[in-house]
Structure formats: C-alpha cells, structure tokens
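S1.2 Input.
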Amino acid sequence: MQYWGLTDAGSVRPQNQDAYKIEQLDKNTLLCVVCDGMGGAKSGNVASNLALDVFVGEVQNTWTAGMNQEKTDQMLEAAVKLANFTVYDQAMQFEEFNGMGTTLVAVLIHEQAVTVIHVGDSRAYLVGRNGIRCLTKDHSLVQMMVDRGELTPEMARTYPGKNYITRAIGTDTLVESDIVHLDVERGDSLLLCTDGLSNLMDDQEILFEVVHGVNKQYCCQRLLDIAKNRGAPDNVTSILVLV
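S1.3 Output.
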C-alpha cells in the first residue's frame, strides 16, 4: 500500500481545526483517520487532535494480527467511545472548551479487507474500476432532509444549514458510530476527507483527479489546489491510499 495525506487551513479561516493520522499497525494493516474539529478558535483544534490521538492510541494498543471482523468492529467502536469520553470530559472541565466536538472518519485496511467507522460528515470514498462510491452517509441535517425527500442531493449541496451535523465526538456523554465493511482489489484507492473538500467538489470531479491525475502522490495537493481556487472557506484535509 502507498498513502499520502495533507491538511491546510484553506483560504479564509486563520486556524486549521482539521487533523489526520496514518499509522502502519503491522506490515499488512494500515489505519487512516481524519477529524474536523468544531467549537470556535480556542477549542476546535483541541477536540480534533485529542480525539485523533486517543482513537489512534487505543487502536494501536488493542490491534493484534489475525483479529476477526467482530473483534475489529468492537475495537474501533471502543476507540470511538474512549475518544468521545475524553473530549467530552475536557469540555466539561474547562470553560474555554465548552461545546467543542469533532467529526471522525477512519479506515482500517487489513490486506484486502476494509473497515470504515465514522461519526459526523467527514467522508470516505472508494475509487476503483467501477467508478467512485461514497462509503459513509453524513450525519447531518441536510442528509436527514434528503432521506425524507425534502431536498434533492443537488439542493443539499448549497442548503444554508449544510454545516449542521447531528452526531459528533465529544458533544454528549454517548456517541453512536456507523461501520461499513468492504473488500478492495489491488489498484483500488480509498480517499478520506473533511467537508472542506467534499463541499466544493462533486464525486465525479474527485474521481477524475484520483484516476486521471499524473501522479498519485500529488493527488491530495491537486485536490487542495482546486478547493483553494474555489475559495476554500473551510479547512481542507484528505488522505489517499492506493491499495
């Protein structure tokens, strides 16, 4: 596997509240995580980095080669819960952190098996011979409205309440995460990103850059450049893994 990651404050915001990590758990296993913090200039970056460190640390401490799918799911869910408890506890203890939270999307790739876990509206995509597929469903107000038939996906892209998320790490005592399983083939790519990218590029544009870009190692930079050319009002983060 080859992998690359990039994060940037974007063109408007003075501070980058996104965070990401790529960790090789063993020679056949890769963990990639992206978080998008919220809660104002003083605490959004604290929430994203704290959740990231706790989640990754828990997985590193728990993962063992040969772990079956059920145990893998339990490990990832426990890591999300621990990250949630830690961020929430900090928010309750310190007034300047009150109300902070973060999204989290993670993929664990073990040989050809992929497990995706997410909370919030940061996304994971599969790009392969059959095109592009978003593996996650946003935990957001607009996604709920799309599900109810009140908005079309096209309307949702520019809806005023698009940034309101319905689940986050650290905003409540309990958190519910979604898990997706899939198998990948050699040559497939996985892309993780925050909404600072997905709000500015549609799936087909992302597909084109991942598949037809001159060099995979520069794909994250190309995606960032496109976002910045379109104003990049939010922080922009992406991870690309070539299986």
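S1.4 Remarks. The longest helix spans residues 69-93.
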